[in-house]
Amino acid sequence: MQAALEREYVDYVRASMTWLRRSAYRLCGDAHRGDDLVQQAITKLYVNWRRARAADNTDAYVQQILVRVFLDERRLRWSGVSLFAAAPEVVVEPDWRVEDRATLRAALDRLPRRLSVVLVLRFLFDMSVDDVATVLRCRPGTVKTQTARGLAAMRRLLDDRPLPITTKES
Amino acid sequence: MTRLLDPLRDEDPLPPSRVDIDQAVRIGRRRVRVRWSGAAVIVVVVAVLVPVLGLPGNGGSSVGPATQPELAIDYPEFDPMRRVVEVGDVRGVEPFSYTTARQWQRVNLQIGKSGFATLTVYAPGREATDAEGIMQPETGTPGQPVGGRASYWLSRGSNEVLAWQWAAGAWAFINLQSADDGSEPDRDTMRAIAQAVQVHDKAGEQVAMPFTVPLPAPYQLIGTTTQLRSAGDPFVRTGLLFATEDPADPDRQYSGVSVHVENGSKMAMHAGANQNVDGHPAMVADQEVIIFDAADDFAVDVEGTGEADLLPIARGVQLVPAPSDRSTWVTQPVS
After folding, report:
1. CB contact under 8 A, A157 and B251
2. Distance to chain A for B222, nearest Cα, Å
3. What is the pTM of this model?
4. Which domains are assigned to chain A?
5. Does ipTM surpass 0.85 in this model?
């Protein structure tokens, strides 16, 4: 890569780091694992930087890389087994919003990965059905079906373990 | 439902970043080079193999006797059922997880509230690697001796690493990620940790587990992982790691199976339970099986990379009668 292009890449990644890390955290629910995802994503981005910068929406292109990295994360990471398979238990003062988040996160983590990604993209990234379909390289109808399946699964999980406070729609 | 997910929008501060842009650039450059050199590599491989294998192109000559391989040096290994690394008291530093293996052992450390350090101790003669490749301590900047032996400061990506010899030909490394504000890693803390490290390579602390499990074929036991807690803390997450090859590099990805048991609030939620296994609620998926409430509030958590059938492995785990009582744990957990 030419030096100018490389500088452009570095500037872009630096400027995007906050939202990239936040996006990865929302996808996987673990900050350290999220950073690992970002690390892989920006490495792939380097290789494909010419294509990314030429895209209509570079941020969307990069977000797509991040989601693909998350979905493709299949192999067991040796040193991650102990560190990231389960976050250390932390004793905290009772905080119902924290409890909410832990309950929701645990429920999301128990969904098949594809369904949890669809829910995160739709309801935390506020992406349209069409945009999610583009990222996941599937048809909008598939996104709608998977959204419905994901929501139904979440309802089942949360009905078993209701939230400590009433954030659930009545 | 969107309201239901709203709590996950809360912008909790993230811990200091571990993302390394310099490393992405370096690895990205290599990948780009590999792309372009792929064809050349094939040509070179063919050029080398054809004469060696006596294929047409070598005039049909017979293959000569194989060259004698160099005699391998028989380096000692660590025992994966013993924790050989001990980190003495350092102000503000708390070990929070320990991974054993034959060629290295690793302790992860919490530094203050948000810092994080990785201490990796290699068995004698083992080559240390990280994401950038082989680490060559002597190429770094010499530091003050640690325990009377040479130490070096290495720059790896955006991190600074302290390397020192804990014995002749045996290296240890501390990688500290302390702050996300661009400040320099705290060399004093790294040195203090290094000074507090003791390696009991001939003995060490026997690892015990609150369960037994039959060796899952075709794997071998390659290590253990345990989350460490202060005395009196009832939380337990500990387990065994199985793979077909012994991991020389703690940061590489290995295909294998991990068998953990865990108590605590997360497992008490039974989140994701989708089956009943032997009378217990269970979450059964391709790459993870959790049997909840297996005994005494403990869950059995088996993860794998897809090659192994995880459910029989999980069902084969036998918890000791009182897993909360550490005095009852067993030191030979593989049956």
Report:
1. no
2. 10
3. 0.57
4. 1-78 (1.10.1740.10), 97-162 (1.10.10.10)
5. no
